Amino acid sequence: MKNKQTAAEDPAEMIPTESHEEEENEAPVKAKRSKSEDAGGEEMVCHPVKLSRSDLYRPPTAEELNQLKEAESLFHCSLLKMQMEELLREVALSERRKQQIDSFIQTVTKLIQAVPDSPEVEVSDLSWLSSAVKVPFLLVPKTTKGKFHMAPPASVDLIGSYPLGTCTKPRIRVDLAVTIPADVLHPKDVVNQRYPRKRALYLAGLAQYLASSSEIGTLRYSCLHGNRLRPVLLLTPPGKDSSSFTVHVHACPPPGFFKPSRFHPQKNNIRTEWYTGLQTSQSEGNEPPTPHYSSSILGDLLPRPHLQFLSAVSSQCSAFADGVALLKVWLRQRELNQGTGCFNGFLASMLLAYLLNTRRISNSMTAYQLLRNSLNFLASTDLTVNGISLAKDPDSTAPSLAEFHNVFQVVFVDPSGHLNMCADMTACTYKQLQHEASVSMQFWDNPTVDGFHSLLMTPKPMIRTSDHVFQLCELVKLQSSCKKQDLLSELMDHSGNYIHTALPFILSLLQQGLGQRISLLTHSLSPDPEWSVESEAPKHKTQPPLSFGLLLRPELAACVLERGPPADSPKAAEFRQLWGSRSELRRFQDGAITEAVLWDGESMCQKRLVPRQIITHLLELHANIPESCLRYVGAMVDDVINTGSEVPSTGEEDSLLVVQSYDDLSRKLWRLEGLPLSITAVQGAHPALRYTQVFPPLPLKLDYSFFDREKTTRSLVPKEGKPCPVYITPITVICHMEGSGKWPHDRFAIRHIRTAFHIRLGELLKKHHNYTCKPCPNHLDVSKDGLVFRIQVAYHREPQVLRESVNAEGLLVVRDNEEAQALEMDTIHKPLLTSTLHGLQQEHPCFGAVCRLAKRWLGAQLFSEDITEDTADLLVVSLFLQPAPFTPPGSPQVGFLRFLHLLSSFDWRNNPLVVNLNNQLSVTDYTEIKNDFMASRESLPVMFIATPKEKTLSMWTKKGPSVQMLQRVVMVAAESLKLLELQLMDSDQIQDVRVVMRPPLDAYDVLIHLNPKQVPLLVQAVDPPTVTFSRGVMAGNVAQCGGAVPVVGYNPVSLYLGREAFGDLALFFCDPHGGTVIAVLWKPKAFIPMPFKTSQVSARNVAVTGEEAKTIPNVEAILEDFQVIGKGLIKSVEARTEKWSF
Amino acid sequence: MRLHLLFKERAFTAYLGFTCTSGVKVHTKMAPSKKKHASNQPCVIPGGFTVLSLRFRSDSVAQHKLYVKEHKVRAEKSSHRPMDRTLFVLNIPPYCTEAVVNELFSQFGCVQSVELRDHPGSSQESGPKMSKFFRPAKKQGFKVGYIVFQNSSSLAEAKSHPHDAPLVVCTEQHPVRTGAQKWIQQYTESFIHPDKLQQIVDSFMEGYDKRKEEEADRQKKEAEQLQEDEEGWVKVTRGSKGTKARPHSEAANKRTLQKEIRKKKRKELMNFYTWQHRNTQKEHIAELRKKFEEDKQRIAILRTQRKFKPY
Q1: Taking the CA atoms of chain B, what radius of gyration do you get in angstroms?
Q2: How confident is the model at residue A29 (pLDDT cuts 50, 70, 90)?
Q3: Which residue of A has its CA nearest to B170?
Q4: Do residues A699 and A757 lie in contact, with contact meaning Cβ atoms separated by under 8 Å?
Q5: What residue ranges define each of the domains in chain A, with the CATH number in brackets?
Q6: In which domain, by residue range, is B97 found?
Q7: Which stretch of DSSP H or E encloses residue A1077?
Q8: Which residues of B touch A28 (CB under 8 A)?
Q9: CA distance A400 to A963
Q10: Per the database entry, which stretches of residues form a coiled coil (chain A) (predicted)?
Q11: Is B18 inside any structural domain?
Q12: From the CA of A386, how many Å to the nearest CA of chain B?
């Protein structure tokens, strides 16, 4: 037997192919070991705390009292406080690491200070550099004036987060400022990129010198916040520590070398003549301002004053460093902390400093309060309109806030009053930050949400956050956008970075075009490029694709009509300009004649992609970006629930038809006259009636010649030798009858009375509406509109009757039993869930589709037996009702991704999943549920789901999944999520989302291959079948009523599944949606030789040892039984004996 | 030593398969046709069961083993399982119906009745008789059977049946339907004409009403007995099922108990005396402490699971 014990201990290392089978397989032979492991597992579970009496009631000290009170009032409980402390411990640098860093910095400083001088040359002359080192700069245009020579730096200082103490794991970076000596520079170097080029040369010089040293690990170039004008040199320590931290070497001018007034946002520092190489007639006064260029140089002048400023602030506030660390974690989880125009740790520290300076927070606050207040500030302040400044008393040359607002989208001025620290940030990024902050504030106050987890522990990658995502792939095309929009001066300002030049323009264009359809437009921040010192600086086009995320407004996003202003209004021209040829004059029903754009879209799944049409159209029209460059990731996964009808549809329309037909039936039932008791309620109890059936039932017209006829009732029955007829799903409807004294008080009598009702209902429906009915003891099948409804009459006291029994002493006892529970489930809980979820669908239009995707995945991965339909629906509901830290999913795809994430990341062992249907649970209910859960964790189902109607038992998950199955589900979900997200975000991957729907089959012991002819749901298979069979369906209009009783609910696969006969010996897995393989897994426990007992000899052989008779499963006969029992259905039984290890 | 024995016994039972001893795992597949015993010996295992082989078809490779024994139970005195004529059969495969079993065992003598059950045990026919449409669906599993022969001599014959002459389930004379054929048959049989169904319901309800009436009559008679006769005497009996004057159900018992507890509680005074007030405060602090400890414990658990690594 393979030893997979190690894998079992660490689920993170498990690969999906090594499935749960191993835990089960090893159980018999390693009983001892697994027992000790169990014991280890039990330790992890919470036990109620037992404190001795003396401990509990000893007189409290004042300090303890304070602590307890603080924990109670400040945090919801002391838990959050402790959680934050633990988190801070995780991200803080260890002392050992700090020592490592300090010693490395010392070495580097010493080395740098010994840089040799070099003779003075022209700036454009690079001959002094060896060929092994390149200049980290894109030399466009090529020529520059000025002289340059290498010289030892004036000083080398630590700057940034490390000296401030706000440096956090992971990706530790230490910033080192190397001051270029004054004689290398010239005060007029500010103009025409002369200074940036000298700085790049200086870095190249340093790199050349350092490359020869053995005390440095690797040398690479990067640039600060993706700004190509500000290259930095990355150093790592040699040896095995090389990945533990990086030192970023910045070259800076001497303090005060340039006058800050030169960098006024209205001033020009790059001459058009130089940049374009053409003679222009523009005088210096007319040159366009270059605010971005100026601020990039100004930023180099100020790191030391900034550090001083922040150190002063942090020395006064004890929790400053912790507060910044928390804020950094928060930002990182939202992917806002790096790349061009990010809100990085430096800005986070500056923000806290601002709040402290303006007395919005006090020095004595805790890290928790600092985080909370800064989020609150971000949520409530719009820096795109009302910028803030840290400058206390700026000198007269400093620009005003209004001047900053004119040229920058987001304004946050530094203490000197000259620099806008958010110069590169787009308004969209700030809006995203604001949105995130306000979402965080909302759920933070909600005591029913695990605030800590949502706030700081859950990553929010764009693909899982945004409803729709699209990517611009060939960024080189943005050059032509710049040209088309005439953005030369902006391009100059951005030193030729056409991506950052075009981005704000594209964003505002999309914002305008999408308008009310979206609530938020976000974009990915292009990551800082990194390249080795031996290669040239990469071109702008080598950047990874730009991704944009849309947060849709569900009620407006799918609207096919864009109604513009009336034809004669002045705004009409603007509208026409925006939409170009798509804009047409239309006359509406209210008589108005307006400009309008009509997008294509018949079915819901097409309408969901209207934003895509808009984006494609606008980008092509205004930005010269062809459709081929656009990769729209909005509905790629939806394909697997495609119903295969003529108009591409994901089944919403079919579900609606079913619901409408049911509504009609329900009305007719209500109106029936001639029943001895009246109907008190008609409730749907089928997933199709809450829009969550994976493939909703379709109205069918049957070809009678395909079937045999039953003799007495003339009903259709399947014909032997023909392919299995089409599967008709019976749609369950529960019909509650009025209570009355006439109902008998006996379980059998009640059943007979119910049957009588079925017969009577059938007669009446036939008489009044000519529906074909088939009454059975347990239900009444009614075929209507080509669908079949299965009406079940229920009597509300029946579960009670089932529970009652008279014991030996004549005492009437009430005992809960499975029969009663099952009945309650069918007649009370399921209908209730159905109506509740039906309501949820009205609120969230994509709810049904998410459920269906989720269930399609569960089915395809062979989990549908363990995680039932109702459980899966509840899991999806929780995504909508408690979306924190996200917003409710606005597209099926994002919902599906979050479903996978929920499955793979939820801590089922320590937490109950509370699904607050209809918002019926109060805060106290939550604590009660949690306490009950903790108190009896071990006896509760592994997957615990509480709903308002049922808080303590988790009836939906009572039967499954087991620990092993859940573990496997978690593993497969994590793997699927990883694969899917990679595929969706990276166009280089194989583009086949069905990969996550194909289960790994190598984990199973026996594969039973089915004959596709006898699998009625074959068309629903993940991979569409190559052959199709005629299954007795005709094209054409469906008759509303009449006709013979069709074959209902006849599915050989589910009839075959050998769970009843061999359930003790093996587990059976099958995809209910057209799977043609049944996977079988032996239960290892069944294969331990057991003593001969009359109750345990099923399918077993006896082996006699002396006086002892032991039994072992008769595998050969069982395999033959698989064949025999499924004659006609089974193609072959593949026993993978090589895997067996008993 | 044990391993050796195991191999021996494998030869004896000629069984194919998988054996497990502590520590050593043996995985051997033996040719199923290997048969050492050509003699017409019955195979009897400890516990007194005789092993009979059973094949689905005469050309089947694998065979199931039936374990048969005469039916012998101390407690049961049921008439339809007479001890001397009843054969107790274990491990009957799912495709064998009553009729098939009847056919299989008639080679040992005339079979009077066959009863197949999911588990061995006494036959309890609880509740009123119901039509097959109202009985719960039969499980498709391995069954135990009670076969009643007409002659007690058949028992001995069955028990001495040689082990290597397997019984065959599906023969040309008596084909057994399985798979798609069987499911179609089942589906067809599930139909019943509404009129017939109504008949079944009516007849059951008639029976039910009759039983109800009888019950009511009986109670009435009992009540009459409790009344005074002419001379003013009341006959006091225990009653057939120990009828009591007190509430008759468990729930009612509980209710009265709770009512009393509530009554007692209402009389208590809260936070009236100083000591009571002090106690409440003490309890509050104890509560906070307890919560604190609980939280600390949870954190410790989560820490060991590395639940605080943010990325």
Answers
A1: 34
A2: very low
A3: A1124
A4: no
A5: 92-258 (3.30.460.10), 462-560+599-634 (3.30.70.3020), 1005-1139 (3.30.70.3030)
A6: 38-123+131-180
A7: strand A1077-1082
A8: 20
A9: 64
A10: none
A11: yes
A12: 33
- The answer, yes or no, to whether ipTM is higher than 0.90 is no
Q: What is the pLDDT of residues A216-234, one digit of tens each?
A: 888 888 888 888 888 898 8
Of the ranges A659-663, A680-684, A859-863, B106-110, which one carries the lowest mean pLDDT score? B106-110
Give the position of tokens 């987890």: A453
Task: Report the distance separating Cα A1075 and Cα A861, nearest Å.
Answer: 10
| Peptide bond between residue A885 and the one before it cis (omega within 30 degrees of 0) | yes
Measured CA angle at B83 (ends B80, B89), to 5 deg = 85
CB contact under 8 A, A814 and B250: yes
Residue B47 lies in a domain: yes
3-state secondary structure of B211: helix
- Residue A746, chain B, CB below 8 Å: the answer is yes
Radius of gyration of chain A from Cα atoms? 35
Q: Which residues are CB-contacts of A386 (< 8 A; sequence separation ≥ 6)?
A: none
Q: Is B238 touching A (CB cutoff 8 A)?
A: no
* pLDDT tens digits, one per residue of A910-938: 889 999 998 888 888 888 898 889 888 88
A18 versus A282: which is more confidently predicted?
A: A282
Structure tokens at A1070: 């099958």
Average pLDDT, integer, range A1037-1056:
85
Tally of domains in chain B: 3
Q: Are A1099 and B15 in contact (CB under 8 A)?
A: no
Q: Specify the higher pLDDT residue, A77 or A663.
A: A663
C-alpha dist (Å) from residue A543 to A15, A200, A203, A488, A1127: 33, 20, 23, 21, 60
Q: Render pLDDT for B232-283 as a digit per residue (tens, 0 to 9).
A: 777 766 655 444 444 467 777 888 899 999 988 888 777 788 888 888 888 8
d(CA A661, CA A784): 8
In chain A, the residue whose alpha carbon lies closest to the alpha carbon of B206 is A749
pLDDT at A889: 93
B119 lies in some domain: yes
Question: How confident is the model over A331-368, as pLDDT tens digits?
Answer: 999 999 888 888 988 999 999 999 999 988 888 888 88
For residue A457, give the chain B residue with the closest CA: B310
CA-based end-to-end distance of chain B: 56
Confidence (pLDDT) at A729: 92
B10 and B93 together in one domain: no
Distance CA A196, CA A242 (A): 29
Query: Strand A245-252 to strand A231-235: parallel, antiparallel, or no bridges (unpaired)?
Result: antiparallel
A residues 1115-1134 lying closer than 8 A (beta carbon) to B: 1115-1117, 1119-1121, 1124-1130
Can you read off the two tokens belonging to residue A532? Answer: 């080795």
Residue B77: closest CA among B129, B125, B122: B122
pLDDT (0 to 100) of residue A522: 93
B242 close contact with A: CB closer than 8 A = yes
Residue A261 in this model has a pLDDT that exceeds 90: no
B72 and B168 co-located in one domain: yes
Mean pLDDT, chain B, rounded, equals 75
- CATH at B84: 3.30.70.330
- Between residues 464 and 523 of chain A, which touch chain B (CB distance below 8 Å)? none
- Residue A268 has what DSSP assignment? -
Q: Does residue B226 lie in a domain region?
A: no
d(CA A641, CA A772): 31
Are A177 and A163 in contact by the 8 Å Cβ rule? The answer is no
Task: Say whether B139 and A1105 touch across the interface (CB within 8 A).
Answer: no
> In this structure, what are the phi and psi dihedrals at residue A549, rounded to the nearest 5 degrees?
-115, 140
Q: Euclidean distance between the first and final Cα of chain A, in Å?
A: 8
